[in-house]
Amino acid sequence: MPMKGLIWFRTDLRLDxxxxxxxxxxxxxxxAGIYIFSENQWNDHNESNVKLSFLIKNLEILEKxxxxxxxxxxxxxxxxxxxxxxxxxxxSVTNNINQVFWNNEFGINESKRDDLSAxxxxxxxxxxxxxxxxxxxxxxxxxxxxxxxxxxxxxxxRRWIENFxxxxxxxxxxxxxxxxxxxxNESSKIQYSKIHKVDIDLWPAGEDxxxxxxxxxxxxxxxDYNQSRNSPILDGTSRISPYLALGILSPRRCILEGMxxxxxxxxxxxxGICKWIDEIVWREFYRNIMHSFPKVSLNKPFQDYTDSxxxxxxxxxxxxxxxxxxxxxxxxxxxxxMLTEGxxxxxxxxxxxxxxxxxxxxxxxxxxxxxxxxxxDGDFSSNNGGWQWSASTGTDAAPYFRIFNPITQSxxxxxxxxxxxxxxPELKDVSLKNIHQPKQDLFSSSDYPAPMLDLxxxxxxxxxxxxxxxxxxNS
Length: 475
Ligand SMILES: Cc1cc2nc3c(=O)[nH]c(=O)nc-3n(C[C@H](O)[C@H](O)[C@H](O)COP(=O)(O)OP(=O)(O)OC[C@H]3O[C@@H](n4cnc5c(N)ncnc54)[C@H](O)[C@@H]3O)c2cc1C
Description:
By secondary structure, the protein is an alpha/beta fold. It folds into 3 domains: 4-133, 3-Layer(aba) Sandwich (Rossmann fold), CATH 3.40.50.620; 134-170 and 206-292, Serine Threonine Protein Phosphatase 5, Tetratricopeptide repeat (Alpha Horseshoe), CATH 1.25.40.80; 304-474, DNA Cyclobutane Dipyrimidine Photolyase, subunit A, domain 3, CATH 1.10.579. Helices cover 46% and strands 6% of the residues. It has 19 helices and 5 strands. The chain has helices spanning 19-27, 39-44, 49-67, 84-94, 108-123, 153-162, 207-220, 225-228, 241-245, 251-260, 271-292, 315-323, 329-341, 346-359, 364-374, 380-391, 406-413, 418-423, 455-474; strands at residues 4-9, 30-37, 73-77, 99-103, 127-131. The protein has a 5-stranded parallel β-sheet, sandwiched between helices. The termini are far apart. Bound molecules: flavin-adenine dinucleotide. Flavin-adenine dinucleotide binds at residues 229, 237-241, 244-245, 279-280, 282-283, 286, 346, 349-350, 353, 371, 375, 377-379, 382-383, 385-387, 390.
């Protein structure tokens, strides 16, 4: 009897550097791939419409590339993560699958779903093999001297480097199977009812597109990354986050290709490349936080005392923020970039998130949700980490009294106002002198709004709210 395997694809939609796929091909005579979608779950996790449309395009390409290896890809719909394990088991039993392979996801719901799936499959005498493809080290493995999980990036990175071995980056190519599996199930179309306004042509789908984007960035931009990464108009970053978020590209591939250009150095050589690899390690750090501190997946702040902060709630301010009409050009330009491109430059994510949580003093969880609902690269741990950093509620967080001034940020990182003018056409004729803080003119024809708040008083209000929460917890 041929050994039959099933690869359960999730956020690893690629052939390159896919340990579950490689093992399935090594161990089985016939292999199928499966992707199981739940619109309810997608909505529960606030995943965006544009990310869904990107997912569907990538699945179509994955199906074609898997067929070259004689592996059919089936898509199924399920109600939720709760119903999924049973559906996966039914599929496996109906198709006489002996072994199921997958790459781990680290969210709390995902881990529960996976554990239950493994249990049900084992009860059906189906073997389960699980791998890590999103990180270099299994989450939780790197520990402080006291044996605790890391909660600060710099020592985490130090330990990450100390233990690093080039063998971690050995990447094998998958080979084609001799024979295709015959299945008793038909693939079903992914069910969804979503539309979006993002220009999806900015994000060509598939592994080849991801690889081209990576090599283009490494060849042309990575060496200057140290200087250019903070300037939104220069576009000096890789824009590979949507590909990493769905696993169309692996972080190991990114690190390997970066190191190849830097004489296989991690800490010396070109500063731009080292800094860029650092960012991939930040991603791994936030995955560790999600794994070691499950409270962050349960809507809780990392710093417990910040749970007592009295956040404000103002519907009008929220509406203006969501539309990119706060009256602060750099904040609005960032928000509008996200609404039109599905992506926002990192510097602006920090500026926008800090403005929301400090000057507006609104709950970071609302901002986190807004980003997830609009980003094509929505990634729970990086988004949660970024919001909690900006709100000073998280690990490694910015101290609560160090609050970015959006006007100074604008002058420093968009000195000529080019980025602002690109995303806020109402301001295209405003002079350089006024672009960061447009003058309010009663008779102006521009419908760009007046600032929604006063920076000085709102800053003091935020500091007071954090202080009060801290004192309340110390008393
Ligand atoms: C409030 C806030 C929300 C964020 N939400 C997300 C999100 O939902 N998804 C997401 O992928 N990133 C998020 N980030 C991190 C960062 O902004 C994006 O990863 C980056 O802008 C993506 O652009 P790039 O691919 O050009 O990055 P590059 O600068 O080219 O970096 C390469 C890769 O490193 C990783 N990376 C870079 N910066 C960070 C960081 N600060 N934290 C974790 N990983 C990082 C990303 O995977 C990125 O693709 C958020 C940051 C903040 C401050």
